[in-house]
Each structure stands twice: as C-alpha cells, then as structure tokens.
Design brief:
The chain has 336 residues and is an alpha/beta fold. The chain folds into 3 domains: 86 residues, Helix Hairpins (Orthogonal Bundle); 129 residues, Rossmann fold (3-Layer(aba) Sandwich); 77 residues, Alpha-Beta Plaits, CATH 3.30.70.1450. It is 55% helix and 14% strand. It has 13 helices and 10 strands. The longest helix has 30 residues. The two termini are 36 Å apart.
Length: 336
C-alpha cells in the first residue's frame, strides 16, 4: 500500500514541479502575470493547440520547446506508472483495502486477534468457521497483505500500540486474543485494551512455564490465561485414557466431510420473544439447529444437565447447545 502511495505522490509532485517551472519560466522570460503563465504552461503540456496567449520572444519559444519535451516525459511517466499499478493488480488491492477498512469500522461486538502466530491463526480459522466477526492485527507487512488477499480483515501495525487497537475497533469489540510469543507484550496489550475498553473480555497465551507469569497476566487484565504446555499435557492424558471421547470431540472440530458441529453457548439477552419463555418454546424458535445440553443460571455456578422443556428462561441465562455451527452461530449473534 505504501509503495502505491509513494508512486502516486511521485506523480503528483512531478506534475506540480513541471507546472511550477513552466509558470515561473514564462513569468521571468515574457514578464507575464501568474495566470497567463500558468495557462500557457497547461495548454503547452496538454498539446491542445490553442495557440500562444501572447506573442513569444525567441527565448520564450526555446523555453517552450524544452517545456514540451518535459511534458512528454511527464506524460510518459504518468502513463507507465498508472499502467503498472493496474497491470500488477495494485488498483484492485487498493479498492479491496478500502472496502476492508470500511467493514472493520462498521463492526460491533467483534473479536480482535493480536498476532498471526500459530495460535492466532487457529483462533482465526475457528472464528471464521463459526461465523464470528474478527480482525487480525499483524506487524509484518508482507504477511498482512497475504492475509488480506485470503479475505481476512487485517490491521497492519503493532498490537501493543493504541493506534493499531483503535483501527481494529477495540472500543466496540467484545473480546481480544493476545497470542504474541512474548508474555510481556501480551500483558501490555491487556493493559492498553482495558484502558480503551474497560468491559472487553481478554484471553491471553502464557508462553513461559514460570507459574508467576499467569498471575502477572491476570493482574494486567487478562480474564482467561491459556498455557499451551498445560493444555497439551491434558490432551495427551485424554488421548491415552479416553480416546473415544477425544475422537468424538475432534470430529466436531476437524471433520470437513459434513457440516461442522460445535458446542455453542447461547446467552439469553433482553429479547421479548425469549425472556420468560420455556426451553420448549426456545426449541421451537431454534428449530432443528441443535440440542440443549445444559443450562447455567445467572446467579448459580452449577450447570443443570439436560434441562426439561418446562424450565423458564431468564435474562442472562446461558444455554449450552450442540449442533450446526452455522445455525447456532446465527442464533447466538441474533441474541447478543
């Protein structure tokens, strides 16, 4: 983007310089006023053939010859530069980036991923599968352009700086994932994010095994701390002692041969068609989207497994459902 910007700035400056030289030349040589000098310069460069504004002296005609040659050079430069922008696909990229920036500006209750690390991209693919809106903040320009070409919403910049977070819509975001490889950077992002949006939910990666790091991340504002080493250990044990359960869960996350199936949480918001209705009524609204596995009441910490249809829903109750990621994602979005 900056390369194209530099080319366009170069074109603009070249035109300004030639017009300035021509105007100044006629003013000095022919003693014309600024307007007549500029007018003569423009019609000379444009080769429209309107004729001389005033009779030219011999020196003025020599100057005009060089001005015409310079104008031809400038027009050639403009034509080749614009052609290269179009042929190389830069123009398409410009419009794509403008559309993307407008899309990001209109997002609300979306998620922000800081870093295109392996963890960050795993999060991105999962959010994409479950139809969540999100933005990825990427530091490296080439990697940012590659992700934009793949259709992701991307902000090019340093996730530890306010500017990048604001461009990603931090003030309207529902949550942010801190996935950088440095725990100090993740903690700094958390502090900055909380300052810009105190209600935002933050999930952060703990890269180091030092137990004190988790507490430091929590103190910085991280709500959910995930250690890949800890999760990896639990996964290995599960594979060993309960392989069938693990395979079942994996099939929901990775099986692309059929429609994606996910566990989804549906938060009951202040919607007149849902509040004070029963789970049975909710099932009629949801249709065949999924199965209600459990319910968690706002004031309770326990889950009620397989709740009966006559249970009445209240605001901020959370339903745990299993079903189509697309359909459940749409329901969750409509109720948020």
């Amino acid at each position: 983007m900056s390369e194209i910007k530099n080319k366009l700035i170069g074109l603009f400056l070249a035109i300004i310089i030639v017009l300035s030289v021509g105007t100044l030349g006629y003013s000095v040589i022919e003693k014309w006023d600024a307007f007549d000098s500029l007018y003569m310069t423009v019609i000379t460069l444009a080769t429209v053939g309107y004729g001389e504004t005033h009779p030219l002296s011999g020196t003025g005609r020599i100057f005009t010859i060089f001005l015409i040659l310079g104008g031809i050079g400038i027009m050639t430069y403009i034509f080749t530069t614009l052609t290269s922008i179009v042929v190389e696909g830069h123009l398409k990229n410009i419009f794509r980036r403008i559309k993307m920036e407008n899309d990001i500006a209109s997002l609300n209750r979306h998620f922000i991923i800081c870093g295109n690390t392996h963890t960050g991209m795993s999060i991105a693919f999962e959010l994409k599968k479950t139809r969540r809106d999100f933005v990825i903040i990427v530091l490296n320009r080439e990697e940012a352009q590659k992700l934009i070409a793949e259709g992701f919403n991307v902000v090019e910049g340093d996730a530890t700086e306010d500017e990048a977070l604001i461009k990603a819509g931090i003030k309207n975001a529902a949550g942010i994932f801190c996935t950088l490889r440095n725990d100090k950077d993740n903690a700094f992002i958390s502090l900055t994010a909380k300052g810009l949006n105190p209600s935002i939910k933050i999930a952060g990666v703990q890269n180091e095994t030092d137990g004190s790091i988790k507490n430091k991340l929590i103190r910085s504002g991280v709500d959910i701390v995930i250690s890949p080493f800890f999760i990896g250990g639990l996964r290995m044990v599960s594979e060993m002692v309960r392989p069938t359960v693990v395979n079942f869960l994996d099939s929901m996350l990775r099986d692309t041969s059929q429609e994606d199936v996910r566990f989804e949480e549906i938060i009951i918001r202040d919607k007149k068609e849902i509040i004070s209705k029963s789970i049975g009524d909710f099932k009629k609204i949801a249709g065949s989207s999924g199965v209600v596995v459990a319910i968690k009441r706002k004031a309770e910490s326990k889950y009620e497994i397989n709740p009966p249809d006559n249970v009445v829903l209240s605001e901020d109750d959370v339903l745990i459902m299993l079903g189509s990621s697309k359909k459940l994602g749409e329901i969750a979005k409509n109720l948020s």
